[in-house]
Amino acid sequence: MATSGVDVRVENQLVRFVPTSPVDHDAVISQLAGQKNGNIVVKALEKPRATIIIDEAGRIVVHGTHRVEVARAAAKELLLRLGLDDTGLQTELGPVIASFNFDSGVNVEAMDKTFTGGNSTYDQRLECAIIQDTRHNLKLYVWANGKCVASDARHPNMVAMSAVFWKTQLQENNLLL
User: Fold this and answer.
1) Is 106 found in the same domain as 62?
2) Which residues contact 27 (CB under 8 A, 6 or more apart)?
3) Which of 98, 155, 84 is nearest to 60 (CA)?
């Protein structure tokens, strides 16, 4: 998704599906070799490639995909393998993890400051600046080479808008190299 010279790539989209009847943990374990871990059951699928988590309420959480259509195919595959109907499967979108590049170096060590639209701190352990983007309700990790990762985003379009906004903020504050 390209917006004003910033190409945003969705790395992961967390999606939860709510079937009309809760998925039984024991059935996933006995029929599909799912692994119990506390109050959840985990099942890795190869086609489509995804990690399925059955939560304590019998809902299906799909992790490791970047498209909702692929996540839905994984949930349907699980239900079909269990002999269950996928009719009425409701979709709930979770946070997006996305990446983009400013195509310019960034003086991340000078980013311990408050900007209009959020604040930033330099994290020595990660060697990046972390921006709490209150305007777009997400978090950005910015490295000196211009590589950025957005977490806690609700939609890829919000990441794209954030990328354009912060590129402008960094330019105006002479932080792009």
Assistant:
1) no
2) 82
3) 84
User: pLDDT digit string (tens) for 96-136?
Assistant: 899 999 999 999 999 887 777 788 999 999 999 999 999 99
**Total count of domains within the chain:** 2
Q: How far apart are CA 50 and CA 63, in angstroms?
A: 6
116 and 78 both lie in a single domain: no
The C-alpha atoms of residue 61 and residue 75 are separated, in whole angstroms, by 8
Domain housing 31: 20-88
In this predicted structure, the answer to whether residue 1 has a pLDDT above a threshold of 70 is no
Mean pLDDT of the region 80-85: 93
* 3-state SS, residue 170: helix
Average of pLDDT values for 163-172? 93
**What is the DSSP code string of 57-120?**
TS-EEEES-SSHHHHHHHHHHHHHHTT---TT-EEEEEEEEEEEE-SS-B-GGG--EEETTEEE
Distance CA 88, CA 158 (A): 29
Q: For 67-83, give the secondary structure using H, E and C.
A: CHHHHHHHHHHHHHHCC
- Average of per-residue pLDDT across 72-80: 94
Residues 110 and 134 in one domain: yes
- The pTM (predicted TM-score) of the whole model is 0.74
